[in-house]
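Summary of Year 1 activities. Much of the first year was spent building the evaluation harness for sequence design. The harness presents a backbone, in tokenized form, and records the residue chosen at every position. We chose the following record to illustrate the format because it has been used consistently in internal testing since the harness was completed.
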């Protein structure tokens, strides 16, 4: 596995559009240059194995996933407390492209692990959307989820390298992404 030239750690609230931004970056750079990594995928895969659940259904935005979300969060926290890099290592396994976009960075321990392992190529990106925009995207506050570390762990303690506002203004989003892409392309 070649060392990446850039690692973008995306974070943001549920329905802020983190996955959309990650996929836009991959689409504009191309899949040979950029891969999207998800810390939640290895977490969900291991949780599904240990609990006899359908891994593929845990990956989508279904009621199935929501039914297990709180227990999955608790289970993941237990795993992280014993080994903070467990899911990070699993997520990067096999990644070969020069640009990695981690679409679901949620905790300070995730940021610290990537910075410790990959150093100066790591940049933090906060994707923000107003509560009104998130509600239009079908977000509803859920106690135990939206106030848990998995959603609030990076609300403090991180000085973000980039803040991308994703409130539905396509021109504004395009301009923000192009500025970020110019910096990434210089690293290639």
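For this record, the design step produced the sequence shown next.
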């Amino acid at each position: 596995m070649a060392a990446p030239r850039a690692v973008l750690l995306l974070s943001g609230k549920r329905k802020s559009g983190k996955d959309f931004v990650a996929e836009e970056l991959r689409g504009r750079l191309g899949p040979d240059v950029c891969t999207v990594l998800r810390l939640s995928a290895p977490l969900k895969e291991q949780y599904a194995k240990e609990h006899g659940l359908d891994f593929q259904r845990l990956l989508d935005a279904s009621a199935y996933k929501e039914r297990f979300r709180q227990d999955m969060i608790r289970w993941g926290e237990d795993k992280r407390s014993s080994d903070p890099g467990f899911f990070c290592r699993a997520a990067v396994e096999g990644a070969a492209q020069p640009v990695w976009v981690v679409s679901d960075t949620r905790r300070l321990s995730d940021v610290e692990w990537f910075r410790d392992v990959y150093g100066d190529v790591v940049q933090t990106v906060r994707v923000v959307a107003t509560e009104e925009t998130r509600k239009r995207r079908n977000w509803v506050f859920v106690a135990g989820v939206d106030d848990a570390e998995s959603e609030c762990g990076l609300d403090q303690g991180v000085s973000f390298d980039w803040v991308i506002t994703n409130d539905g203004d396509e021109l504004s989003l395009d301009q923000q992404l192009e500025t970020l892409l110019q910096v990434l392309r210089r690293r290639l």
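The first helix runs from residue 18 to 29. Quantitative recovery figures across the full test set are reported in Table 2.
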